[in-house]
Amino acid sequence: MFMATIILILSTALFFFYVQAVCQKILRRKFEQEFFLAIVNANRLEFPAVRKSLEDFDVPVDYARLRMMLKCDFLALTYLLKNAANAGRSFSHEERLLIYYFRFAFFSLVMRHLLRLREKPAVLKMTAILQYFANVVGQRVNAVRFGSLTASDYLLNL
After folding, report:
1. pLDDT of 50-77, one tens digit each?
2. Are 50 and 127 in contact (CB under 8 A)?
3. How far apart are CA 18 and CA 118, in angstroms?
4. What is the Cα–Cα distance from 142 to 137, expressed in whole angstroms?
5. Which of 42, 45, 101, 146 could form a disulfide with 23 if both were Cys (CB 3.0 to 4.6 A apart)?
6. Which residues in 119-154 are b (16+ Cβ under 10 Å) and which e?
7. Neighbours of 111 (CB within 10 A)
8. Is 104 exposed, middle or buried (0-12, 13-18, 19+ CB in 10 A)?
9. 3-state secondary structure (DSSP) of residue 115
């Protein structure tokens, strides 16, 4: 019984390590340009400001406000991923995996806040995921040209 428990714990740990490594590999993908800026401006997303304040100023985290901003940005970007310039109206495997990874990081942020552990790494991980989602949406919208409309104009007309 003891050996089975050890094997189960190690297998679970290796599985989560593998999932994290795959997600990090997906997030390292380079885009030809920063598509996310147009998406951020068109939809008034907050995650770049959150990242900048944490990286540049090293301010303490206002947990309630930060949690709400990240959750709203996540909901907006997942909606756009599914509906903006997406013929299949579904998520790819990578996007679905990153959605689960974001939810796990969000849960981790809640636990870190309750246990008074470092919240900054979880927040920075979540902003990286949101930036990836915004880049994907921006790339899709940029690929679909509507006359003289820019990506921001297109998204405002959705």
Report:
1. 888 888 876 676 788 888 999 999 999 9
2. yes
3. 23
4. 8
5. 101
6. beebbebbbbbbbbbbbbbbbbbbeeeeeeeebbeb
7. 12
8. middle
9. helix
H-helix segments, 28-115: 36-43, 47-52, 63-83, 93-115
> Token pair of 103, please?
């939810």
Average pLDDT over residues 113-135: 89
Number of H helices, E strands in the chain: 7, 0
The residue written with tokens 């579904």 in the block is: 90
Closest CA to 85 of 42, 127, 44: 42
119 within 8 A of 54, measured Cβ to Cβ? no
- Is a pLDDT exceeding 90 seen at residue 119? no
